[in-house]
Amino acid sequence: MASPVSISPPSGSHGAGSKRYTNEIKVIQELFQDYNALGYKQALAELDQALIDMYPTIVIEPLRLGDDTARWILVGNLLHRTTVWGGIGGCLGVALLPDSTLLWLPVPLATVSLGAFVAYTASWMSDPCRNYQVETDKQRLAALNLNNLSSSNSVIVLTLTDDFKRRCVHSAVALLTASVFSYRMYKYFCST
C-alpha cells in the first residue's frame, strides 16, 4: 500500500486544497510488474479512495490506470465544453436569426448542448474525478520531484481544482439554452 508523501506544494498551486490533506501527495504505486487484473483492481480501489479523500495531488504510476483516468477526465472536459460552447452557439443563433428563418443552425447546437449536459449530469456530477485535472505544466511537475518513483517518466499527475465556477457556468448555460430553445420552438410552431 502506498502511503501519503508529505511535501511542500509547488508555489502557485491551483488546487482547491483539502482540510484533511493540505500538503500531501498520494502516490498510487505499481505493485506488480505484470500488472494483472488483481493489481489493477487494487490500484483502482486505492485511486478511488484518494479521489474521495480529495488529496491535492495524486500521482498514478500504473500506466494503464493512469491512461484510463486521463481519458475519463478528458471525456468530462469534452462534455463540459460541448455543453457550454454548443449552448452559446445555439443561443446566439436564436438571437441573431429572424423568427421565420433558418432554424437548422441553432436547433442542432442547442440539442447537442443539452444532450451533453444530460450526459455530463448523469455520468460526472457525482464522480469525485470531476474535481481533478491532469497536470501538464512542466514547472509544477518538476517541482513535485518525481525522480524517486519507479516509473517517473510515465506517471499521470492529477491536481485538485475548485470546479464551483465551472459548474455554475455549465448549469447556467444549459438552463439558458433550454429556455431560449423552448421559447423559440414555441414561437415557431404556434405562429404557423
TrEMBL record:
Q: How does it sit in the membrane?
A: Multi-pass membrane protein
Instruction: Please give the start and end residues of each transmembrane region.
Output: 103-122
Compartments, record wording: Mitochondrion inner membrane
The alphabetized UniProt keywords are:
Membrane, Mitochondrion, Mitochondrion inner membrane, Transmembrane, Transmembrane helix
Task: Tell me the GO BP annotations in alphabetical order.
Answer: inner mitochondrial membrane organization
Please provide, in alphabetical order, the Gene Ontology terms of the cellular component aspect for this entry.
mitochondrial inner membrane
| Major place of residence | mitochondrion
Keyword Membrane annotated: yes
- Family named by the database record: Belongs to the TMEM11 family.
As for what it does, the entry says: Plays a role in mitochondrial morphogenesis.
Q: What is this protein called?
A: Uncharacterized protein
